[in-house]
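From the methods appendix. Each design record in this collection lists the tokenized structure first, followed by the designed amino acid sequence. Records were kept in a plain field format so they could be parsed without special tools. The example shown here is representative of the layout used throughout.

RECORD:
FOLD TOKENS (354 positions):
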């Protein structure tokens, strides 16, 4: 009887143990009966928040990260015990930044510039910075001096959650600010295909998730652009971009017809390589370096015959199992990885020749 009495006296916001909380019981969520906390105020749209972690004279409260437009937090933050950033070699950072190189480069004209010192030097030189990302947990103080120069140069500064920042910062970096340097994702297909780096054409895809994973894989490998010829409506295109971790912020992701992309690739001087099980040579038997447009077909029908006839070569990925095809993302990853291996081998040979 005593236990029942205790259950009855519990506040309504905290239901008895054993009963699943309904959305209406949760006070700080959209659609709840309680009062939501107001989102953390921001400056101009796209700029990082430079608010203090907590107000003086109050008890320490959990850090609330800048809110999205719907009021939800971007991230819950980094786990406790994470190592804090240490100051790097200033001279080395300035030297590498002045040389036009980044601490973590990718193939093509896009690269990341890591650290406030290197980013400040890039802004002073007028380098084509596209975006500056700040770790919302530990980067606000380090980006104070970047706000005004970035605003004058028209470079957006965005605060992201710690977990999201970890996925975008260079591996092993302790910096809390990173910038993307390179051309804008806009431009007609010919202009985009004239840039450095591999390009990809995904044709006939059926599932937005597969498209998004393939876009993400292409971006990770340093691709110049990804073109898609699909029947996706607006909702499915948005789903594909979300699955790609919004890679469209960093490289052109365009929906174009196959004929338009192939014609533009010819005008841009690119070789066209199809990836299909009817190929006569494996991936590692074909030169994948240089300006290349890779063509990957859909999950059901593969690359159309008319498109295969316009390819300079068709590569196959050997299969040894009973299932007769890889997942589309796996095929893209193997082709991208083999291209990067061949490029590294060529660079090593050049170094030895010198």
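DESIGN:
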């Amino acid at each position: 009887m005593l236990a029942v009495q205790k259950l009855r006296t519990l506040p309504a916001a905290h239901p008895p143990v054993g009963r699943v909380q309904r959305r209406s019981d949760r006070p700080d969520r959209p659609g709840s009966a309680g009062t939501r906390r107001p989102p953390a105020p921001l400056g101009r749209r796209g700029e990082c928040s430079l608010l203090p972690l907590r107000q003086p004279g109050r008890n320490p409260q959990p850090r609330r990260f800048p809110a999205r437009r719907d009021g939800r937090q971007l991230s819950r933050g980094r786990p406790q015990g994470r190592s804090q950033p240490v100051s790097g070699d200033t001279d080395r950072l300035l030297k590498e930044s002045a040389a036009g190189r980044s601490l973590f480069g990718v193939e093509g004209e896009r690269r990341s510039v890591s650290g406030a010192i290197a980013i400040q030097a890039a802004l002073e030189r007028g380098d084509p910075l596209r975006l500056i990302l700040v770790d919302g947990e530990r980067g606000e103080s380090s980006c104070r001096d970047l706000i005004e120069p970035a605003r004058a140069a028209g470079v957006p500064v965005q605060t992201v959650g710690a977990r999201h920042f970890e996925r975008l910062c260079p591996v092993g970096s302790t910096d809390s600010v990173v910038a993307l340097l390179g051309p804008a994702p806009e431009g007609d297909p010919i202009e985009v295909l004239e840039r450095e780096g591999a390009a990809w054409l995904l044709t006939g895809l059926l599932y937005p998730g597969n498209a998004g994973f393939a876009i993400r894989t292409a971006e990770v490998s340093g691709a110049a652009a990804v073109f898609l010829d699909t029947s996706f409506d607006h909702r499915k295109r948005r789903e594909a971009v979300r699955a790609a971790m919004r890679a469209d912020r960093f490289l052109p992701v365009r929906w174009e017809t196959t004929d338009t992309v192939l014609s533009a690739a010819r005008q841009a001087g690119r070789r066209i390589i199809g990836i299909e099980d009817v190929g006569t040579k494996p991936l590692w038997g074909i030169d994948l370096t240089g300006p290349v447009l890779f063509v990957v077909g859909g999950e059901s029908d593969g690359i159309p015959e008319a498109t295969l006839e316009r390819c300079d070569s068709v590569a196959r990925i050997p299969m040894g199992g009973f299932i007769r095809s890889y997942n589309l993302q796996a095929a893209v990853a193997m082709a991208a990885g083999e291209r990067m291996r061949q490029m590294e081998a060529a660079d090593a040979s050049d170094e030895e020749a010198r």
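APPENDIX NOTE: Residues 1-106 have pLDDT under 50 and may be disordered.
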